Amino acid sequence: MRGHAIECRLYAERPAKGFLPSTGKLTQLRLPAQSDTLRIDCGVREGDVVTHFYDPMIAKVIAHAATREEAIERLNAALGECEIAGVEHNVAFLRNVLRDEAFRSGVYDTGLIEARGDALIPAESPQMTIAAALILLDAQRTDSPWQRGDAFRVNLVHEQRLRMRRRTDPIVANVAHDGDGYRVTVDNRTFAVSGLSVVDRRVDAFIDGEPFRCSYVSDGDDLYVMRGGATEKFSLPTFDATSFAADALSDGRATAPMPGQIIALFVKAGDTVRRDQPILVLEAMKMEHTIVAPIDGTLERLALTVGDRVVEGTELFQIR
Hints:
This protein has helices spanning 68-79, 91-99, 101-105, 112-116, 126-139, 241-249; strands spanning 4-11, 13-14, 20-21, 24-25, 28-30, 38-42, 49-50, 57-65, 83-85, 159-166, 169-178, 181-186, 189-199, 202-207, 210-219, 222-227, 230-235, 253-255, 260-265, 272-273, 278-284, 287-292, 297-301, 309-310, 315-319. It is an alpha+beta fold. The chain folds into 3 domains: 4-120, D-amino Acid Aminotransferase, Chain A, domain 1 (2-Layer Sandwich); 126-241, 2-Layer Sandwich (Glycoprotein, Type 4 Pilin); 251-319, CATH 2.40.50.100. Strands 10-11-12-13-14-15-16-17 form an 8-stranded antiparallel β-barrel. A hairpin with a 2-residue loop joins strand 16 and strand 17 (230-235). The protein starts with a strand and ends with a strand.
């Protein structure tokens, strides 16, 4: 027996959604290099697909050091090198656990996650949204002065309005050119950006004077921004204001949170339901998930039967 070792399990899952599994293609998978003090056990490769048929583990990362404190630091640094795109994952969550005082002191039990609540769940970063907006603007650049995306105007500071989706939530980024830099407004906050460089899928900039660096990869309409082990997904801008607003107002529409099979239905179309009333049970990843009514109303649409298989995002029912 020598020293101390700690293992983290990297999963394709959504910590903010009760750790529901996430499926999809591993568009990017970059893990830290193995060494005498760091071991990587991984059964998938970049380009592989995480399906709902198997456990969604991506890899195990194990760090060894002379003391527990050193092992924690080594493991946290290793997780910060991970770049995973295509599925949601728990790397940023694991880093929050490693930084948590209760965990670091060793005074914790299996109730740690429940006790710490949202403190361990990674927060969305406005800096990542800024990076996504600037990446999309950079992609519009061209040698033609008529097609450039730099918003040049004579004697006018022009502001561009980018509509995107952050994961599934609509978001707007206002980008104003300010001399050699930008002023970017997201989430009702304005940030000054200078020294921007977008080269080889890497972004370097100063945001409000603080250095910022991230990497990114695109897959069709999806853009994944990665930094310090965290990944945020954005979709390319859309200018269809009608459809953009419609999703945000559809409070009574329920979609499948993951791929699975309908194994029980408790109501039928036309029934009156109350908020939080069980509507159906979806079996996925060896677990049964009860889907409840998000609002009071009448079940207007339920085009499913027991045994149907659905993919993530499929409409399950509509309440009016």
